[in-house]
Structures are given as C-alpha cells and as structure tokens.
Amino acid sequence: MRIDIITLFPEIALAPLSESIIRRAREKKLVDIHAHQLRDWATDKHRKTDEYLCGGGQGMLLKPEPIFAAVDELKQPTTKVILMTPQGIPFRQSHAQHLATAEHLIILCGHYEGVDHRVIEALVDEEISIGDYVLTNGAIAAAVVTDAIVRLLPGALGDARSPEEESFTDPTMLEAPAYTKPNEFQGMKVPSVLLSGDHQKIATWKKEQALRRTQENRPDLLG
Ligand code: ADE
Questions:
Q1: What is the pLDDT of residue 39?
Q2: Exposed/middle/buried for 156, CB within 10 Å: 0-12, 13-18, 19+?
Q3: Domain residues for 198?
Q4: How many domains, the chain?
Q5: Which CATH number fits the domain that encloses residue 106?
C-alpha cells in the first residue's frame, strides 16, 4: 500500500508515523508513506498556496491550482483521494478497515478555513473528520487516519489476533477493564475472578464489565 500526504506541514504528518509500530511497518515495506510539501506545486515566485475568500469572510483558503497539480502528478488509476476536514464524515474503525484494503491513498490536508470547494467537487472521493473539534491543520488528522489504517495491515502488529479483540472492532461495545501484576497495588486488588483460572467465568465477567463501561463512557454506542 502507498500513502501520499499533501500538506503545508509534512514534518507534522511524518513525526507520529516515524516511531514504533508504524516505523516498523514502513521498514518491513508493508506501506510506503510520503509526505509532500504543497508549496512545491505553487508556481508563482512567492510559492503562494492561500487566498482570501470570494464574497468576503474571515480567513484564507487553500487555492485550487497547487492541489490540482499535486494530485495530477501523484494520482494512479486505483488511487482514492481523501480530504481531511472538520466538515467530513466522522472517522470510525470500520472506515479504517475499509481504507486498509486500498492500494493507494492521497490524503489532502486542509489549513486555514479549508480548501477551495472545486477541489472537493473535482478531486476528492471522501472527506473525513477525526472528530467534532477544529485542529490548526489537517496534517495532524492525516497522521491519525494513517496510523489507524497502517496498524491494520497484515503483519503490522506482532500478534495477528490483536486488532480483532479491541474496542470498535465490535462497534457497539468498548473493551472490558484489564489488569496486570502486581495482584495488589496501593490496597487495590485485581478482581479475584481474573485470578480464578475459570475461563467461562472470566468471559462472563468481561462481557458484563464491557457493557457497564460502554453504558458509562459511550451510551451513544448502545443506541
Ligand atoms: N482539520 C482541522 N480539524 C480537523 C478535524 N477535526 N478532522 C479532520 N481534519 C481537520
């Protein structure tokens, strides 16, 4: 899989993708990630990428020309073009699973008030938001989406089962609480059922706890 991120801040996008599991996935050639400087496709002498809004209004928008030129240069027949924007569809685990099957993604990162709408009309297949808040730039969001996709690629995680057992693989339920050693810490004990060796009982306890945690933290998932 190949991922091209187009942004005014390639270093912001790459920093979280250069450590730990994602770094190893890149070293193993499971994914080829490139972050490009949008300014490299600006043709005027100041390498300008933004402009005032037509019709007035606060702030600046990314101009269409450098983005069209970048996509034109990088796009392949199978490419899916994504725009990171708070106006996009909320990003979920199921979406990450779907995108992990793609051959090539181009991820466009908004900045300032966003991008000229002709970019969305003509180039973008999917607009994605990582949550109902506004970041200073889409490079942070692109790193989040890329991380969520790449860790799902076969071979990226050491233990092949681990993505299936976590929260959001079942989109209606959070994970149960988990404990490790020591069995007692500052007077707090690991629940005795987890030390009982009774797998049936442990499974039932985990189900109950997962439901309780979901009711407390994410009642919206239960409908
Ligand atoms: N750019 C700024 N805020 C964003 C968000 N919440 N999701 C995706 N891209 C963004």
A1: 98
A2: buried
A3: 172-222
A4: 2
A5: 3.40.1280.10
Q: Is residue 37 part of a domain?
A: yes
Query: Three-state DSSP class for 70?
Result: helix
With H, G, I as helix, E, B as strand and everything else as coil, classify residue 102.
coil
Name the pTM for this structure: 0.94
Q: Which atom of ligand 1 approaches the CA of 130 most closely?
A: 7
CA nearest ligand 1 atom 7, residue: 129
> Measuring from atom 2 of ligand 1, which residue has the nearest CA?
135
In a domain, 85, yes or no: yes
| CA 105 to ligand 1 centroid distance, Å | 18
Q: Ligand 1 site: residues with CB under 6 angstroms?
A: 84-86, 110, 129-131, 133-135, 138, 141
pLDDT digits (tens, 9 = 90+) for 73-94: 999 999 999 999 999 999 999 9
Q: Are the C-beta atoms of 75 and 81 separated by less than 8 Å?
A: yes
